[in-house]
Amino acid sequence: MTIAEYLEQKGREEGRQEGKHEASLEIARSMLAREFDPAVIKQLTGLSEEELAQIHQ
After folding, report:
1. Domain definitions of the chain by residue range
2. 3 state SS for 29-41
């Protein structure tokens, strides 16, 4: 594998992870708007308490 191929693969993986995180944030916003319990939101989305606090402001 060349360096360019490695960097391209790494970039794709980072992009996927970022996309998953953004999706989790959107789901959490929707759940908070519907007054779900924050503990349930954390468990289902994998977000931290700090991330939920930032969304909830």
Report:
1. 3-56
2. HHHHHCCCCHHHH
What are the backbone angles phi and psi of residue 56, rounded to the nearest 5°?
Answer: -70, -15
Tokens of 45: 């989305």
Residue type, 7: L
Q: 4-32 pLDDT, tens per residue? A: 898 899 999 999 999 999 999 999 999 99
| Gap between the Cα atoms of 2 and 16, Å rounded | 21
Q: Taking the CB of residue 26, how many other CB atoms lie within 10 A of it?
A: 12
Q: Residue 27 in contact with residue 51, Cβ under 8 Å?
A: no
Tokens of 12: 């794709």
**35-56 confidence digits (pLDDT tens):** 999 999 999 999 999 999 999 7
